[in-house]
Amino acid sequence: SLRMRPGEEVTVCDGAGFDYLCSIEELSPDEVRCRILSRSPSLSEPRTAVTLYQALPKGDKLDFIVQKAVELGAAEVVPVLTRFCVSRPDERAAEKKVQRLQKIAEEAAKQSGRGILPAVLPLHSLEQALERMRSSDLPLICYEGGGEPFSRLLPREGVRTVSVLIGSEGGFASEEVQAAREKGLRPVTLGRRILRCETAPIAALTAVMLLAGEME
């Protein structure tokens, strides 16, 4: 689509965090042959690996959330089933949904020049999500009932992995928040206003990336 010709240079990403400056040698309808000139870490990849754990929203809102999360630099997106989720797909429907979301993530990664292809993981129960989040340097839950501001938790020495859990339209039940606390998650606030479930992850990821110095 760029109408490039042999002899011109192009940057190619391997999807694993490295960019390659290449010279085009041959072009055909089915393939492009290039010679690698240099290899370097992708400058577009954040140093802080952020995983978004998103409780299932209604309709196709998760399509939008995945797209924007990848554009903002999320390394992974994990759909989560919580008490107040209206959307409750069966196993087959959930698998098909994840496949579609992965395609959306890949398109968003290409559009935004990411150095990796962020993964959309299979649907997790809340218990599975909380257990997985324990391995993160900084596991957070966005809670409309209050919490610490992001600025009090970031930047922070030694934090290389951050996990953020966002609720669905109905938020979280009090026992879910308590379970999250017991697993070591820190409740954080996005301010005095209650954000929609598709707005909250964008605000949270932006706050993390800004405070971690990833938007300079």
How does this structure look, described?
- The protein is an alpha/beta fold.
- Helix content is 31%, strand content 27%.
- The protein has six helices and eleven strands.
- The protein has helices spanning 61-72, 91-111, 126-133, 150-153, 174-182, 200-211; strands at 9-13, 18-27, 32-41, 49-55, 76-81, 119-120, 124-125, 138-142, 148-149, 161-166, 186-189.
- Strands 4, 5, 6, 7, 8, 9, 10 and 11 form an eight-stranded parallel β-sheet that branches. The protein has a three-stranded antiparallel β-sheet with strand order 1-2-3, with no helix packed on it.
- It is globular.
- The model has no long low-confidence stretch (mean pLDDT 93).
Q: What's the quick description here?
A:
The protein is an alpha/beta fold and 216 residues long. It contains six helices and eleven strands.
List the uncertain runs.
Answer: none
Overall strand count = 11
Instruction: Measure the end-to-end span.
Output: 31 Å
Mean pLDDT, to the nearest integer, reads 93
Largest sheet, described in full? 8 strands, parallel
Helices and strands, in order, run as: EEEEHEHEEHEEHEHEH
Structural class: alpha/beta
Number of helices: 6
The whole-angstrom Rg is 19 Å
- Envelope shape: globular
Q: What oligomeric state do the depicted chains represent?
A: single chain
Measured as a percent range, the helix fraction is 25-40%
Strand content: 25-35%
